[in-house]
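Exercise 7. Predict the joint structure of the components listed below.
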Amino acid sequence: MAQRDDNACEESLRAQIAQLSATLQEREATVARLLNDNQRLNLALAAVRDSRWQQLGDLLRQRPFGMTELRAVLRLGGGLARTRIAPAHGGVTAVTNLPMIVTPAEPVVAPYVVRLPQRAEGSRRRVVHVIANFMNGGSSRLVVDLVEGLGDRYDQRVLTSFIPNPVAFVGIPVKELRLTPRGAAGITEAGEMVLDVHHADHPTPKFEPGREVSFGFTSHYGKMRARYGEGIAIGCAGENILLESDRVYVLEDFASGLAFRSAASGATVRLDSVTVADPCVEFSRFSLGDPGASPQDLKPVLQFLGDGVRGYCFTPAGDLRLVPGDVLVAG
Amino acid sequence: MSAPFFEFDVVLALSFFSTLRESRIGAWLDALAGFAKPGGIFVVTMPASAGAHSMLREIERVRRMKLVLFRAAATRTHRDLFVMRKGS
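Solution:
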């Protein structure tokens, strides 16, 4: 009797689970459909909003209505007329050279010191803010607000292609890199220039013509890690520039003319006269994981690393600001 | 071992793409996608006046990122929101 009751109970539970599962699937399908509808409606909204008629309507509703608005109305109206009369010209819109309005320079003010909140216990999620410049604009202020408001819970960094001088904010890690023919320099969040030890202006005698700037590839680190283990952390060789890449580069690749290109400005610096960054004995010992390795033990390591695996050096032919996101291109 | 190179949980590019020439948007999207760790989130806002369609087209071309949310601003003076997730 008890066995029969158990079976009935189990069957009833199974039926309920099946019903709940079906309901869940139905609800998920509804959510997916609503999300799709939402996306479709958003696209339709964007299309209407971006139409010239809508723009024209928005402009005509503006008060006060000045010369700038009048010019925009003429441009949009002209564009509409052209579209109707000569559709073959498509979206090409002639824009006259309007005089540039120059606003008076802002008075120099002391940089704002960002108030970093107390860091919470445990690991924090990593967030990177990508902004065009770290000046006093709305984007920079928003980043500062986020750092001040959520800095306890999130590890936040800033990537930018321009830090003004004097700086607008201090206290946030900001990444920017400048290359000149004299070597590489990093710019700190306080706007100070930190010279690489191989820079021609650095007080230590490590400067060597032709070896001002060094660069390496993540793919080369993959090769080193495959051989010497996970202890070879990416970037541990201390190169100035680390390029994310799937392929391994040999010296001959640079003979065909490669260049660093700033994604923001499009400016390039050709990689002329690239040479192999010779591995030092210390780095070879570190790779081997044996601080007391003999010269005989080191010989194959030096050969392996010396083939461009450790990286390359060059002298920049001009000034360039590099930030993460810039690329290596055919020059 | 140190944290993996460039692997962020969240990449926020608020009003960044509107500062670029349209021809550069694809390259930057691709490059910034490289900063996100697998499963990471990439958030972009752009002034609605910049037009959403070119951005949506470029997002489609960056295969390692999938658009999970697009919210159009109601007016051209506000900002469109694009949220992408990097494949695992």
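Discussion. The first helix of chain A runs from residue 2 to 50.
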